[in-house]
Amino acid sequence: MNNNFEQFTQLVRRWWPFYVMLAPGLLYFFVYHYLPIWEARLAFHDVRIIPPNTWVGMKHFIALASSPVFLQVLLNTIVISTMKLVFIFPIPILVALLLNEVRSGSYRKLVQSVIYLPHYLSWVVIAGITIATLSPSDGAVNEVIGWMGYNPVPFMTDTGSIRWVLVFTEMWRSAGWDSLLYFAAIVGISSELYEAAEMDGAGRWQKIWFVTIPGIAPTIATLFILNVGLFLSQGFDQVINLSNDVVRSHIDIVDTYVYRIGLQTGEFALATAAGLFKGVVGMILILAAHMISKRLTGKGVW
Amino acid sequence: MLNNSRSTPFERVEYILILSVLFLMVIVTAQPILHLVAVSFSDPANVPGMSGLEVVPDGFSLQVWTLLIQNPNVQRGFVNAALITVVGTIINVIATTLMAWALAQKRLPMRRFFMVIVLVTVVFEPGIIPDFFVMKKLGLLNSYWSVILYRAVFAWYLIILIRLFEEIPGELLEAAELDGANPFQTLWHVIIPVAKSSIAMITLFYLVLHWNEFFRAMIYLNDPNKWPLQVVLRQFVVDGDKVGMVGLANVSSYTDVSQISIRALKAGMITLTIAPLVLIYPFILKYFTKGTMSGAVKG
Fold it and tell me: Which residue from A11, A140, A258 is facing B32, i.e. has the nearest CB?
């Protein structure tokens, strides 16, 4: 007993400064991440003007499951995330492969420093740029379409094209930056492998196919799994800034729905339920992603 | 460069094709931004007829910029954004560095427990409504602190910094301990100088996060006088609220201001919002490689 106590005081004496350093951060995580989890119990209540709120169990979740609007929102989320995964995921890999072929260091640096930039722009700014660039009257894209002899397309207010706007603006923003991780992986491949391939008479494409791609395969796998894990949690900032009344029904995703019915319409409990539903599904996806990634490549998501 | 001794004409064409594809990417990335810069510096009279492909100002005029800089909404937005960004980043960097250094101690008792506390918040997010109610109960709604504090430590950056701190060789620390330094002195005199570039990188990332913040500001700050620039920009460009931008009197009367096309104003406003980022972008390019090479960069 006495011995244990002495050990304890020794530990405290050794480590207390580090706990002091932890304190502000831990306080932050408690207040802004754990209190909200407690606050999410609202999803199981009916809000009353005069507290306390009444416990209603799964009522709001059942209401969501039978709400055509929520089901449409869920469908939109899945469709948009799938489109992004299919059409955007391969691009950064291709960009990294092309960058690696560039022999002039200064040209490569120039390309890199331009294509990384959009990653640092907010979606408000990108929405502004997109609206200008896609404008039917004086946007660059419609001008090019005009050269080819077609009529201008009002991309932002066309329900057929708005999801593609989401795909291409996301590509514009992140294809460059995301290539960075692949490029770093390519740089890490041993040059001996390339020399050996050259001895065997391999050309450019054979070296890419037999050395580079196998070399970055673990990175590709990890990032693909991570993307699947974040399937539901992408695009709030994007959609909220690129949306408008005409196309809303086609691009409203779970996050924007939660915001709309919660903070704009004031159906707090229902919105909390929708947010919680997304939180739980998202958690399952990311944990699965982490475990699969760990098993396949030995590297987890974090 | 092109004349690799063994390259055939076909390979040279191939190489030029590769360079061209990358060049096309550069154009597609840069043209929309350069176009808006060009519009904002053009003579406002010429703007309505300007091609969307133009990247050179049509005539030169600072009228748009003068108007924007004199606009009280823009001025307030800029000051608010600067305030939130600077105070927020200082808090971020201090809290993140302290926490990362403590969690980088492999033998810290209960270290795993604290790591799990952090990781749970990465994996599970209960959504925006509970966040909003916590902020409300704390009485921070409509206060700058709401926007500053809601992300005082960003879990991903914390994880990156822990990994970077773990790479610092142990001998350095032992030497400091032998000299009788306490952990705070070690952090200040040994770790921070060694990890300067890592901390610089985190600082830059936080600066960008705060500068780009619009959504939390939008929902937490009711008072338009407290809005940062991004929210002012959103009001004007995304919601198309011209009245708030140039003033009701100017919209309804025939003044110089109402003559400037909304397209030119929007272009100027977007350029203005990007400008501070472009200023720190060279530093980002300088520091970020280090972080990327050492593992996951998220955000």
Answer: A140
Distance from CA of B252 to the nearest CA of A (A): 24
Q: For residue A54, give the 3-state DSSP assignment.
A: strand
Contact state of B134 with A32 under an 8 Å Cβ cutoff: yes
| Digit-coded pLDDT (tens) for A175-223 | 999 999 999 899 889 889 999 998 988 888 899 999 999 999 988 988 8
Domains of chain A: 2-46 (no CATH), 61-124+151-297 (1.10.3720.10)
What's the pLDDT tens digit per position in A13-65? Answer: 889 999 999 999 999 999 999 999 999 999 999 888 777 788 998 999 999 99
Contact B237 A17 (CB under 8 A): no
User: What's the complex ipTM?
Assistant: 0.90
Q: Which two tokens stand for residue A279?
A: 């939180």
Nearest Cα residue to A33 out of B275, B120, B18, B237: B120
Residue B271's closest CA among A255, A191, A128, A157? Answer: A128
Report which residue type is found at B69: I
Q: Look at A132 and B266 and tell me if their CB atoms are within 8 Å.
A: yes
Q: Are residues B38 and B177 in the same domain?
A: no
Q: Does A206 touch chain B (CB under 8 A)?
A: no
Our CA dihedral for A292, A255, A27, B298, rounded to 10 degrees, sits at 50
Provide the domain count of chain B. Answer: 2
Residue B288: closest C-alpha in chain A: A180
Distances (CA, A) of A121 to A46, A126, B100: 40, 7, 27
Provide the CB-side half-sphere exposure for A82 (13 A, CA): 6
The per-residue pLDDT for range B61-104, each reduced to its tens digit, is: 999 999 899 999 999 999 999 999 999 999 999 999 999 999 99
Q: Of the residues B39, B61, B83, which one is the last residue of a structural domain?
A: B61
Summarize pLDDT for B185-235 with one digit per residue, the tens.
889 988 899 898 889 999 999 999 999 999 999 999 999 999 999 999 999
Mean pLDDT, rounded, for A117-145: 94
What residue type is A270 in one-letter code? Answer: L
Residue from the list A21, A39, A302 with its beta carbon closest to the beta carbon of B133: A39
Check CB contact under 8 Å for B19 and A274.
no
**Which pLDDT score, from 0 to 100, does residue A107 have?**
94
Cβ of B129 under 8 Å from any chain A Cβ? yes
Q: Say yes or no: B83 and B43 in one domain.
A: no
Q: Under an 8 A CB cutoff, do A184 and B293 touch? A: yes
* Residues of chain A contacting residue B130, judged by C-beta atoms under 8 Å apart: 35-37, 39-40, 42, 272, 275
**Residues with Cβ < 8 Å from B155, sequence gap 6 or more?**
B118, B119, B121, B122
Sign of CA dihedral B171, B172, B174, B178: positive
Closest chain A residue to B297 measured between Cα atoms? Answer: A181
Residues 6+ apart with CB under 8 A from A94: none
Q: Which helix (H) or strand (E) holds A45?
A: strand A45-46
Q: Which domain does B176 fall in, by range? A: 64-299
